[in-house]
Amino acid sequence: MKNKTTHRMSIFWIAFFSIVFLVITGRFLYIQATGEVAGISLQSFADEKRTNSYQISAERGTIFDRNLMPVAEEHVVYRLYAIVDETFTTHEENPKHVKNAQLTAEKLSPILEIDAAEIQKRIEEGIRDERFQVEFGAGARELTQKQKEEIENLNLPGINFTEEPIRFYPNGRFASSIIGLTQKNEEKIEGISGIENQYNDLLNGVNGSISYQRDKFNVKLLDPKEIINEPENGDDVVLTLDQKIQTLLEDSMSEVDEQYEPSRMTAIVMDPKTGEILAMSNRPNFNPNDLSNVENWYNDAISTPFEPGSTMKIFTLAAAIEEGVWNENEYYKSGSYKIGSNTIRDHNKRGWDSITFMEGIQRSSNVAAAKLAYDKIGPDRFFDYLQDFNFDQPSNIDLPGEVPGTILYDYGIEKVTASFGQGSTVTPIQLVKAASAVANHGQMVQPFVVKETKDSSTGETISLQAPEIVGQPISDKTAEETRNILETVITSKKGTGYNIYNLQDYTVAGKTGTAEIPDPENPGYMTGRNNYVFSFLGMAPVDDPQLIMYIAVKQPKLEPTESGSAPVSYIFKNVMENSLRYLNIEPDKEDIPSVSAIDFPSWSNKSTTQLVERLKESGISPTVIGNGDKIEKVSVEAGEEITPNQRIFIITNEPTMPDISGWALRDVLALSELIDLDLEWIGNGFVDAQSIEKGRAIKAGDYLMVELQTKEEALLEETEAEEEKENAEEQVED
């Protein structure tokens, strides 16, 4: 019985193991034949595990000014990481991972400005968690070339870098609200405002990729089966902005900002023949390279409607002339005008007794504007003109974020106050667009800031913006007569712009504005001599205007003897005069010296001394780099139009480092490009320190590090130094 049971059990186990063997063998044969497990290809799984795949970022397109000077471009920085997996080291004498966490942390700390204990902690946590590599947060990202080189010179095992692109704006605050901002996500740089946002898809391009097979140490195999998909770089955008005119505007506004500390400023320069915006700026604005302490993200020129004040009288005057109801010699009683139960008054409250309508326009009489619009043109017909000048709609400029003003025209008083810019609101760009009709034979042009888009690889034009006439609210004859009357606002002793907005070489037609500011806390308007928006809308030369300019300065801190026009006229005169000269517009005033701007002379076969003397005769003071008497390079081409305030570089055959203290970054960049220096900088504003001392010989490839400092930072540093000195003196006395 026992033998029979044993025999049966033996047969059972033999059969059982035979079946198991057959199942396992069959499974192996099946896997070998199909190469799959649970529907997953083993070959694909293995390839995936030993294949590295990386994205190749497309280079974001460049934004240029009209003369193809870059105003936004891609810039390479570095990210630091540390390999902590000791298996990555194959030879002990040549370690590839971090061997000493404490030493590594101590050496990296002063360069990265990260606490050594924090660096050491991250390394040790990475080792404990069996990670391959670790990073160190924001302090180890966006490192400069200089920081990278300093760290590489430490020869720390396991410390490596990856390149990463950032968006760089070489001129800082230059037209920042137009150009806009970007932010970086995991895949690419994305535009979030301005042109960067409006043309984001065109600028971005399409990312590529690369994949290859590697071993467990991340080393590429001999046959890596590499696959590369090249990226398609983004295309370029060319703006209508002119870097020289924009720089004139930025510098002038910065000076006014520093001297008068207004709460808001806006300015626009436009070509009235084409609608091209040559310059546009706001204060406060921002530096897109440094977004700390940003006070204003908006482009006020297109997105902040306000009551414009007396600049609206330009269009009331033009409408009256067009309707045939204007008589400059007709008298009216100034001072006050009653509409229903409401009374409007002239800005001096009492008026000037009985004066002509011509004098009323010159003196910026509210009563004159009210009588023209309500009594002579009629409120319904005047409203038609406001619509014809497009004040009831956005300007449709090719920028995001436009918010148009609103015409208030429901009640009798609103139909009167609209004639002199109170109650209803507009934006600066709406005013400039409407004024183009006065400057351009009655034809109103469409304002725009993008001149063309270009293929970044071939340079071929993708799209080109042509000038567009979008209306003709007045005739050519009316436009000419309006300009001639507005010229007397500047030339007549009774004019509000007399001896304030006149230019040296060019005639000007324009209108001043002093707009009240609604009180945010109480009904009505704010009081006090500073609580106004002071503005000017002007064009020059009068007979055939080549430029229109609008400036508005809100709540400047004026001296008791200063008028509100002081900061506005400073910007207008500096920018308009120099811009017309730069554009080679023929002066139209009599007895004007023929030389205001000059064609840069040829420097071929001239010594340094000869060229400098020739330029000084024309009022140009060049910056000479070095002591050599032979000229190697000059920053402008022979025949190029230059103005007295323009910085000209002359590079001699023995270049030496100048003292660049106080220079703007754009001038440092120009010098660096001419000599081909390896330039790095930190901070914003103007040069405070330089790594190459003054007088040292320089050559192509030399490394130059500059520290920039804003005027506010310099003032704070000076104040702190004085306080420290005073404290030290007090301690000595004690």
From TrEMBL:
It catalyses: Preferential cleavage: (Ac)2-L-Lys-D-Ala-|-D-Ala. Also transpeptidation of peptidyl-alanyl moieties that are N-acyl substituents of D-alanine. Keywords: Membrane, Transmembrane, Transmembrane helix. SMART domains: PASTA (SM00740). The chain crosses the membrane at residues 12-30. Residues 715-734 are annotated as: Disordered. It is found in: Membrane. One of its GO terms (molecular function) is penicillin binding. Its EC number is 3.4.16.4. This is serine-type D-Ala-D-Ala carboxypeptidase. PROSITE patterns: PASTA. The keyword Ribonucleoprotein does not apply. Its main location: membrane. GO terms for cellular component: plasma membrane. Pathway: Cell wall biogenesis; peptidoglycan biosynthesis. Residues 594-654 form the PASTA domain. It comes from Saliterribacillus persicus. Belongs to the transpeptidase family. One of its GO terms (biological process) is cell wall organization. InterPro entries: Beta-lactam/transpept, Beta-lactam/transpept-like, PASTA_dom, PBP_dimer, PBP_dimer_sf, PCN-bd_Tpept.
